[in-house]
Write a structure and sequence with these properties.
There is one protein chain. The protein has a single domain (about 35-390), classed as TIM Barrel. About 35% of the residues lie in helices and about 15% in strands. The relative contact order is 0.16. By secondary structure, it is an alpha/beta fold. Helix 9 crosses helix 10.
């Protein structure tokens, strides 16, 4: 009887664990009223991440190395023949400027996001939010910056001002209508790298409770008060954690987050080459996403100027393939227009192009031309054979 009881207990535990794992995988976006396209994107990113990772580049179609505002252009497309699968944009221009400048910024980004949606790509939004209660911009500047989080959360002196900024964001979200008449979904990634001290919302400048209050209010106000239903909400600290507990130290809760991620430049060549460390941290992110039924992503990385000609395959790809992980996308930072050194993706003639083409042709990576109806639940992507994807800088 004792042996049978132990066997029964183990059997019950096994099925309970299995049911929990399956149930977690069936979770949907935290917005129960999310648009059909947003739900499809969420589902397809989860499906694709089992075997692939989408490649992303910040500001890829707005400007690049030595150019600005050319329709249909990106440095990645000039090298491979395809735009990145994920295009990063920034809503930093939505506050702290004149009404005319804000309107121009909104229209420019509206067109960018809608164009990406119409092509079948994915947009992700960063927010380098200029300090709403003091000078200093989005960075923390001693003797200038004020710890704005406590001012803009409910009960704070600038809370109504913050609500007005969010209302402008909500109006913009409702303007993202594609050629099919549907609203373009976006991955919204506010208050990133909050575990560092360089931004005014960083860990040294706000308490854990204040940060969580800010996150929850932001999501609730956009979703529940402003009826924004085309956002996927992404939580992304920097790389200052070594275990799940540290990763979740300022986590607002599963009911407030769709995607978990990590920004990590330091371990991939900026400060050191520590592929094992970077992969370990990514696995923490991916493991939590699987357990909680969330999406996971490598939300920012890169090596400025890409002096390592095999960085794409020998560092980035090896890091992402080191463990059995599910990463929806990886995004590298921007290519500056004027700077001769500030760029993170190759442009025609760059010495890392041959290795980047290997990265592009690898079955693991997906670019925009690989995506097939990612906003439809029935179909999401098909990796093109390498011989069909071979491209040169003349495209």
């Amino acid at each position: 009887m004792i042996q049978l009881g132990r066997f029964t207990l183990l059997l019950v535990s096994f099925f309970a664990f299995s049911f929990g794992a399956v149930n977690a995988q069936k979770k949907k976006p935290i917005d129960k009223d999310a648009t059909r396209e947003t739900k499809a994107l969420y589902k397809n990113l989860a499906k694709l991440s089992k075997k692939h990772t989408l490649f992303g580049h910040q500001h890829a179609t707005e400007y690049g190395h030595g150019w600005w505002g050319e329709e249909g252009r990106s440095d990645v497309k000039s090298v491979t023949g395809s735009h990145p699968a994920v295009i990063g944009v920034d809503i930093m221009g939505f506050s702290g400027r004149s009404p005319q400048e804000i309107q121009r910024a909104k229209e420019s980004l509206r067109k960018n996001v809608v164009d990406t949606y119409n092509r079948g790509g994915v947009s992700t939004i960063a927010w380098h939010f200029s300090n709403p209660v003091s000078g200093g911009g989005f960075y923390w500047k001693d003797s200038v910056s004020l710890p704005a989080v406590k001012y803009i959360i409910p009960g704070g002196e600038a809370h109504e001002q913050y609500k007005e900024i969010l209302r402008g964001m909500g109006e913009w979200a409702h303007s993202l209508k594609g050629a099919d008449g549907a609203l373009a979904p976006v991955v919204f990634r506010p208050y990133h790298e909050f575990d560092g001290g360089w931004f005014w919302w960083g860990k040294p400048h706000t308490s854990r409770e204040e940060f969580i209050s800010l996150w929850r209010f932001t999501v609730s106000y956009l979703r529940d008060s402003l009826d924004v239903h085309n956002f996927i909400y992404a939580f992304s600290p920097d790389n200052k954690f070594n275990n799940e507990q540290e990763f979740l130290e300022r986590y607002p809760g599963d009911e407030w987050v769709d995607m978990v991620g990590m920004d990590n430049y330091a371990d991939l060549g900026r400060d050191r080459y520590a592929i094992d460390t970077a992969a370990m941290k990514l696995k923490i992110v991916s493991d939590y996403a699987i357990k909680a039924g969330k999406l996971a992503a490598f939300t920012e990385t890169g090596l400025e100027s890409i002096p390592d000609t095999t960085w794409w395959t020998e560092t980035l790809l090896k890091t992402m393939k080191a463990h059995d992980m599910r990463l929806a996308y990886v995004l590298v930072w921007r290519n500056d227009v004027k700077s001769p050194t500030h760029y993170y993706a190759p442009y025609p003639g760059h010495r890392s192009v041959p290795d980047f083409l290997k990265f592009y042709n690898d079955p693991y990576t997906l670019f925009e031309r690989d995506l097939k109806n990612i906003y439809n639940k029935r179909k999401s992507a098909k990796k093109r054979p390498a011989e069909q994807k071979a491209a040169g800088s003349n495209k």
